[in-house]
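User: Can you help me understand a structure? I only have the sequence.
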Amino acid sequence: MRIGLLIYGDLSIQTGGFLYDRKLVEGLTILGYEISTFSLPWRSYSSHLLDNLSNRVLEWLAQRKLDILLQDELAHPSLFIMNSRIRRASATPMISIVHHLRTSESAHILTRVFQSAIERTYLRSVDGFICNSKTTLRSIQSLIHEVNLSSVIAYPGRDHIQPGIAAAEVETRAHSTTPLQLLFLGSIIRRKGLLTLIDALAGIERDLWRLSIAGDDSFDPRFTQSLQRRVRQHDLRANITWYGAVNNRELKELWKLAHVLVVPSQYEGFGIVYLEAMGHGVVPIASKAGGASELIDQGGNGYLIEADDVVSLRSTIERLCVDRAHLSALGLAALQRYSRHPTWRESVREIDTFFKNLPFNIVM
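Assistant: Let's start by predicting it. Here is the structure, written out as tokens:
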């Protein structure tokens, strides 16, 4: 089967969504699919809207005889009109890979109304959905007011990392006499909740914790600057280490030292980083908004807080600072939950079955 994949940017980009797309391509290739990728340049939201007037996508499709066109939903601003043009030019089914909806992110009310209309139009223009969680599927159903959608839920797999940590190591680390080692891992953008974390830590005794921040800070330089100002205002510089974007070797060392991962995002469709934390026996703290609740058992293997709830986040971290027995129990439970999670091969098999059962006339 010949598959096309349309994305923004480059598959090598180090975010959870692009990791998902990479693993999907790798897995389908192993299963014998022939996959070609088309990339649109990554620009501003308004600039992406102009892509709908371009013929580049149509010209690319005309050169290929595809059985299915996959589209990363992130690219919806470039496709919400384009898909009707594709429909007129070709009978190729279009399937959207949805990590999370843009309208699930917080924004000014007028921006949300405008972008919701565009995203709704896009979602109604495709023939089916690959979703990374049940939460993501429900968000689609809610936005387009349809329940019976052609869809598959294929969770991000666990085995792109090989933590190799034993339960005894998790226990030993939890009961160490060092301050609680917190890790924030993700792109340095407002949605990830790093300001909430900084404000929460400002109210906790300085000798109880240390924070490592690892992630690409080039996406929103102005936000990075405001974040650094907040750190200075709270006089937290001695407790925080900034690593910037890290390679695999550096990240492995950060996981080895960490007790708790704190990424209180305003929204995550799933949150691969929480799964990675569990694989290292690191306790995840996420927000209740999004799909993290499908992975995290509140108070059992991690914690869920309301997005932007500084007080709850502070009290949760304070408890973990002093209750190392509880920290140990959470880390062990997280490790066990990770071991039960599907592999990438299992998730790609779900997608393969979905393709083979699509109600369209596809050449096999």
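Now, to help you interpret it: The two ends are 6 Å apart (CA to CA). Residues 324-340 form the longest helix (17 residues). Let me know which part you'd like to focus on.
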